[in-house]
Design goal:
Layout: H1 2-14, H2 22-29, H3 31-39, H4 42-139, H5 145-217, H6 222-263, H7 271-315, H8 324-336, H9 343-355, H10 359-365, H11 382-402, H12 405-426, H13 470-478, H14 488-502
Helix pairs in contact: 1-4, 4-5, 4-6, 5-6, 7-12, 7-13, 8-9, 8-14, 9-12
Protein name: GRIP domain-containing protein
GO molecular function: small GTPase binding
Subcellular location: Golgi apparatus
Length: about 500
């Protein structure tokens, strides 16, 4: 309510024709007819005043429409900028992981080069010893023809060994050229990443200019937008500095590897296994990229579902208004879910809160134990018992009325999204995990689905919008960041509700 009042003040400041500033102009323009109005009859005065009242109401409607259009433009601009910055941050994280993997691979190859170099030194020593033996055999060749034949055979073997070493040296040179080609490919990728970074900076500067232009027309949002801009600038600068430092380290490692590869002259028989390993790693990387694309597509679909659900919740914001089709879909999902699944209890708890079940109905449904409530406060008389039950029931009804249906449904959606994320990160979900939905009496502000996800560090804020609006922040800023997957029951409920709306 305070932000709406500030927005109206800003609109009145931008449009000097609205509000009290209009009355002086009207009084100035009507100064000459005002004297004639004093001489006119009461009916004419009333008609004149009604016309002025109608004109004033029309101007008020015009200013109200302009204010609503301005708020809609600001909301769309904030959402588009948040999506662009999230995509850029995800791209930088992915490139950072790729560079780390390549750096680890380069380190392994350097160790293998050291091993091969040691083997080359050993082979040179053996060749020197064989040459000495050959000289000794030549000095003794005149003693016996049989010795000459044996020395000739050994010489052929040594020549074959030297030829084999020469072939291995050529193979090593070919491998070194292939490594140089790999280095050039990595340098091209680094240059492409730098170009993308420059494009992201240009887009960021363009968005900042748009924010400045919008801030001039909406002074009430200046503080929130400045905080958002500063946070995103710091995150982007930090990510850019880390990426540049890693790129410099990778370039230094590649230069060292190039010098060592140029001086290496030994056999590479064991590098065939490394080639097959590289092919398998490339295949695995391609499969993981496909999985990431699929997860991103599913995250976009789930985000659309959540946006549609939140739009309906904002449209039907009454506490006592229950979507019959939505409750039906949740009940059908509850019946089709396996009995050992922990989501059945959570679905039943959500239905009990939506339908405002009392203690007896919750005991029949198995949500609480029989006689669990009212035991500690049992009075000696039946009148005291009835009074305590009445007070407890009235307190529960008041709490249920104060807790809106939209907040409960948003918590249910966030809980399902967190459980969908669990199998992709840490295996099967634990029924006793702290990511389960809160109790029906718990306020929405005391429970956060991202508090235990493990992805947000103290130095990195969630890549979403500012928390000025809880519903809009949940719908567009937090959930798509983690590439979440909603459960099958939630997707079925949302899909059935959407089909019912279309029909």
């Amino acid at each position: 309510m305070a932000s709406n009042g500030a927005g109206k003040d800003a609109v009145d400041a931008d449009h000097p024709d609205a509000g009290p500033s209009h009355s002086p102009r009207t009084s100035t323009s009507d100064r000459s007819p005002r004297s004639s109005m004093d001489n006119a009859s009461p009916e004419e005065r009333i008609a004149r005043l009604e016309e002025e009242l109608g004109a004033t109401r029309q101007e008020k409607e015009t200013l109200s429409n302009q204010y609503r259009n301005l708020l809609a433009k600001l909301t769309a601009m904030r959402q588009s900028l948040g999506d662009k910055l999230r995509e850029d941050a995800e791209e930088l994280d992915r490139r950072e992981n790729t560079i780390n993997n390549l750096q680890a691979e380069v380190t392994g190859l350097q160790e293998q080069l050291e091993t091969v170099k040691a083997e080359l030194v050993h082979a040179n020593n053996e060749s020197a010893s064989l040459s000495a033996q050959l000289a000794q055999i030549r000095s003794q060749s005149d003693s016996s023809s049989s010795d000459v034949l044996s020395l000739t055979r050994e010489m052929r073997e040594l020549r074959g060994e030297m030829e084999r070493l020469r072939v291995e040296r050529e193979e090593w040179e070919n491998e070194a050229s292939r490594e140089r080609e790999r280095r050039e490919v990595m340098e091209d990728e680094v240059a492409a990443m730098e170009r993308r970074e420059m494009e992201n900076k240009r887009e960021f500067d363009k968005g900042r200019e748009e924010l400045i232009a919008e801030r001039q027309r909406a002074d009430n949002l200046q503080e929130v937008l400045s905080e958002f801009q500063a946070a995103k600038d710091s995150e982007l600068q930090q990510a850019t500095q880390e990426l540049e430092s890693q790129l410099r380290a990778a370039a230094t490692a590649l230069s060292e590897y190039k010098l060592r590869a140029a001086n290496a002259e030994t056999r590479l028989g064991e590098l065939s296994n490394d080639a097959t390993r590289s092919a398998s790693l490339a295949k695995e990387l391609k499969e993981k990229n496909q999985i990431i694309g699929k997860l991103r597509h599913e995250a976009v679909v789930n985000n659309e579902h959540l946006t549609e659900a939140l739009r309906r919740l904002r449209k039907n914001s009454s506490d006592n208004n229950v979507d019959r089709r939505l409750v039906t879909n949740i009940l059908l999902a509850f019946l089709t879910t396996h009995r050992a699944d922990s989501k059945r209890f959570e679905m039943l708890s959500l239905l009990s809160t939506i339908l405002s079940w009392d203690d007896t109905e919750r005991e029949k449904a198995g949500l609480q134990r029989v006689g669990a409530t009212g035991v500690a406060g049992k009075a000696p008389s039946e009148k005291g018992k009835a009074r305590s039950r009445k007070e407890e029931r009235s307190a529960e009804e008041e709490a249920a009325m104060n807790e809106s249906f939209s907040n409960l449904f948003v918590e249910f959606l966030l809980k399902e999204a967190s459980q969908g994320q669990g199998p992709s990160q840490s295996g099967p979900s634990d029924p006793t995990s702290p990511l389960r939905s809160p109790l029906p009496g718990m306020a929405p502000s005391t429970w956060s689905p991202t508090g235990t996800s493990g992805t947000n560090t103290p130095n990195v804020r969630p890549r979403g919008l500012s928390n000025s609006s809880s519903v809009s922040g949940i719908g567009s800023g937090q959930i798509p960041q983690y590439v979440r997957k909603s459960s099958w029951g939630l997707q079925q409920a949302l899909r059935g509700d959407k089909q019912e709306r279309l029909q």
